[in-house]
Amino acid sequence: MSNGKRLFSIRGCPVVEAVGELALGEGEAVFLVGPNGSGKTSLLRFIAFGDAPYPINQCSLSIDGNLLINPGGLGLFRRHIQYIPSERMVFPDLTVEENIKLGIMIGGIPRNERDKILGEIYGLFPIFASRRRQLAGTLSGGEQKMLSIARALAARARILLVDEPSAGLAPKAIDTIYSIFRDLRAKGVSLLVAEQSLWPIIRNIDSVDTIYVIHNMRIVNRQSPGDIMGSDIARKYFGLRR
Amino acid sequence: MAWRIIMRIGWRSNALLEMLRVSWPGLVAISILLSLGLIMPAGIMATIRNSLSYINLAIPWAIFYSLGYPSFATAAFYGIGAYVLTYTLLSGLSPLVGVIASVLASFAIALALGAITLRLAGLFFFFATLAILEAIGQLLRYTEITLTGHIGKIVPIIVSDQLSLSILAALAVVNIAIYSYIMSTRHRIYIHTIRSDKVLATSVGVNPYRYSSILFGVTSAMQAASGSISAMYLLYIDPGSVFSPTISLLTLIIGLLGGYANILGPIVSSIAIVFLYEYTSRIAPYVNLVILGAIVMAFTLYLRTSLSDIIERLWPSRRSIIHYGRESR
Q: Are B318 and B19 contacting, i.e. CB atoms less than 8 angstroms apart?
């Protein structure tokens, strides 16, 4: 869970004007919620790759106390941030283990630590230990999502940008993903998660620290998960009644 | 120093063992080809030498094609290699300097051209490289006429048939080593990610554009080395002969038929196509390309696979991507 240490923030641009900044602490799970086309993916991709439309493209990022004007120049911080897209998450023709090893290679993990990390990943995702030689494309949607998270963790990512983890999944699979989020937070991994619906968040309210509501490329509100249910925001943007 | 490098890439990760596993069929094939070339009569020896020359073009072509880019610029780099060597020799420098200069020049030119063309999708990249080949050939033709008043250069070096054959075989060994290094290490996975899904590869942290550019540079340099060594026995070069689209076309046919999943693919394909091309040139000089075209069409329509894939299916090399896939099913 969050230990209060600030790891990441975005400020100084129209997208966060209404709330001042979007901040993420170590081990914290921040959710970005908004309807289709509201700019969730654009914001995540801006953080990960530095490409996004106005009014997102002028933000300055701060990672670990270092101010980065241009996120395209994430440089050394790039490996700490891993983006997990909402679809096409894994390489279907590579095996489960090759997908995980790809994360290890990208993360620049020293040779003598690689087996240890692989063991840690299999400890966290025991389902993959017995299926390491299975093609990733033959996994179910939920398992592919878990594998993409495993790959990001293998790169020793400290911040995961997860785009719509609940999209296309059955409720039970969504709960499994959210329980993994809880485990990751306990390990000090920070999460910035985009969701289109409030429903998976409400089902797993203890996995959430802060919710930002985004609409028309601008964050319009910041809420704690306990308050959002009865708020005007929930009614206005998501049609939830008091 | 060399031993330390081998140790570093080798023992700890068994990469060296994997490289040997991937490369040994190719090394055996080159040894057989060289031995035959040295004992056969001059006519067959010339065809074997031509085969080796195309092996040295087809292996880099196949490596780059594994990213999903079919290049038609082979003759451009072959020609650059031949011309740089010739001009280096005319300047009084040694052939070794000429080969190194051609490799470096091609690497730099390929990086520049890659910056323009590698953002294009596969088929559009193919047409762009076709245009590049024509543009470089025409530019050289114009420059030669303007500066010297004539087209073509005599290559001021004479090497024996046996020596040229041996040098080409040595270059083939280097090319096989580069192929097996790429296909036995993390680069194999990176290539697979780029070919499979560029967007996801970017998300994961592989930079497809930068990686493709570097690989284009490396494979073009390998092709330039083949051009510069071939110039040593060609005796005379001009843009029409070394920048010939036929060189690119034959390499393309060899590469498509041979594939990239197994080193024997481009090697066996080169030998078969060169022998067939030279034989049909003799018996039916005006229809030989038609015959080759018919073979490619038959392969594409009925077998729908490459020689590499067939070899992999019958005789899998342990770590190729295709074998991993099938093994896991």
A: no
